[in-house]
Amino acid sequence: xxxxxxxxxxxxxxRRLVWPLTYRRAPFADHNRYMDEKAVYGITALxxxxxxxxxxxxxxxxxxxxxxxxxxxxTRLSEVVDRLVEGDTIISLFPDDAGRLQPGPEVKVDVLPxxxxxxxxxxxxxxxxxxxxxxx
Length: 136
Known about the structure:
The chain has one domain (33-132). 20% of the residues lie in helices and 38% in strands. It has 2 helices and 6 strands, in the order H-E-E-E-H-E-E-E. The relative contact order is 0.16.
């Protein structure tokens, strides 16, 4: 029923010889150096329910901010706030006269007097507020 003593000793000996290889320190600091970089998202449009912001059209922008890594999709406000809390950068993208999107100020979390979380721009310029983004 049991394994012969010679096999048990051989397996046991092999285990002792191999274990230093399985628990060695990695020769590099991070397993994926590209994951250290925080993501950059862009908001192109907003959806309101009455006066309250409920969704944003948000997509993932590539590191050069020239193309979309993930095209914008409707995203609940709570998910946008989660991205900001996790340290990701979210910028506003305003349409210009030619129909292209131009980067605007960064988006931040703002808390209304009644305690509701909403979004605001880090710096507002004339014609560049969240209310000026298109609706969807």
